Amino acid sequence: MPKNIQSKKVYLMRLDQMYSEYKPMMFGLAYRMLGIAADAEDIVQDVFSQYLQKDRGEVLNEKAYLVKMTTNRCINLLKSSRRQRETYTGPWLPEPLPDVEMLRSDPVERRETLGYAYLVLLQRLTPLERAIYIAKDSLGLEYQAIAEMLGKTEISCRKTFSRAKQKMGHHSERPVGEWTRTEQQERFVEAFLRASDMGNFKPLLSFLKEEVTLLSDGGGKVRAAINPILGVERVRAFFEGLSAKGSFREGFEPVSVNGEPGLLLKRDGRVSKVLTVEWEPDLSGIRHIYLVVNPDKLQLFNRNSPGTSL
Known about the structure:
The chain is of the alpha+beta class. Helix content is 47%, strand content 14%. The protein has ten helices and six strands. The chain has helices at 3-34, 37-52, 62-80, 82-86, 116-122, 127-137, 143-150, 154-168, 178-198, 232-244, and strands at residues 208-217, 229-230, 252-257, 260-267, 270-279, 286-292. It has a six-stranded mixed β-sheet with strand order 2-1-6-5-4-3, with helices on one face. The longest helix is centred in the N-terminal third of the chain and has 32 residues, at 3-34. The chain is globular.
């Protein structure tokens, strides 16, 4: 085999290895930043496409370079889509993922930084706050590396991280044991399945905080609650009202949502609703219920379903 062909083969194998090694990390970073899987995937592809055109001899640290490029692309996209978010119909919620195993590629990443409630709170940070918080909290980067990546000073990054940490509240702390948390979540899922089958949601109230809030994201494409539903009795009335109208006739099914127990509902064989919740840190009750019904944000759950893609 001619030397140049052999070199090209080695080069292509190296690129394939690099893509396999770094894509999960890059996608996880972009998904946390943007809250939309398709946008995150586009960012990853764009960054790799640009990297292929670059002289690799100029890159001393591949991982740091790819993280920097991914982060800055996300910040630019968030700035350009800010107006679209501001005019969104009803509450804007991130796109839920049916499986997050592919994201767990970096040992410094913590399981809870992939959770849906964590993702919801991230979207409330400014793009810069989000970038610095994810770099420090999820990727474990030092302030010096973050400062170089974003063209900021270390002092500025420390202050921004501190501000972001305050906004993240209890999600900036280590959670209780994973086994205990999953067991409690599964108990709620089982209780919700029984409640929806019977049309009686009163037994479900023992899981909810008195001040529980339900957010429903339809994006103006399907019927959804435009405003947050506040309080345990109003949440109960909301679910019982939908049940009485026959909205739950096909029955909920348990599903993994961002690596945690959740629920989905199908209509005509297609996933039409995905539900997940946010617990108090001590698992004393549920503080938020998130209901995603925007069909654009359920495409990953319908990927293997029959029928035409949405």
